[in-house]
Amino acid sequence: MKKLFFTLAIMFACFAAFSQANYKSAIGLRLGYPASISFKTFVNEKGAFEGFLGYRRYASYVNYLTVGALYEVHTPFPSVEGLGWYYGGGASAIFWNYDDTYFINDDYNSLNIGIMGCLGLDFKFPNAPVNLSVDWVPTFVIGSAYNDGFRGDAGALSARYTFK
Predict the structure, then answer these.
(1) What is the C-alpha separation between 162 and 31, in angstroms, rounded?
(2) What is the torsion angle, in degrees rounded to the nearest 10, for the CA atoms of residue 10, residue 84, residue 27 and residue 15?
(3) Would you list the domain boundaries of the chain?
(4) Span 2-163: which CATH code?
(5) pTM here?
(6) Rounded-to-integer distance, Cα 98 and Cα 137, Å
């Protein structure tokens, strides 16, 4: 009986520690290019969807709006409470608006599609409803002579408020 009680107590303590570091959903800012509003929600223990909406003004003649989503597979680091890593992929649509005064060439489209991968670290503060993550998002861009091809320079630092 003592072994059963001890085993249940250990399991309960582990569950309590794990649940403090876990969260169901989070909303906040994704500080990358472009800066975005981010919403992440877990659909199961390891899988999460992250959607983002961002806007950027580039120089004085280009504006763009990005809408995208990633599916992320999360794996915790057992030795650090609240810390995990994730990988996954997704897609985005980038809507460009050019000032025609600066562009003579009509080959520039106003829509790009991005096929994205992601690799990152995710940290949930144990005693606060705050989540930080940093990731690398290599992207293959389709749809514009201006930006076609592989982009390995994308990524972001995100800060979010979490919900259980």
Answers:
(1) 17
(2) -10
(3) 2-163
(4) 2.40.160.20
(5) 0.78
(6) 25
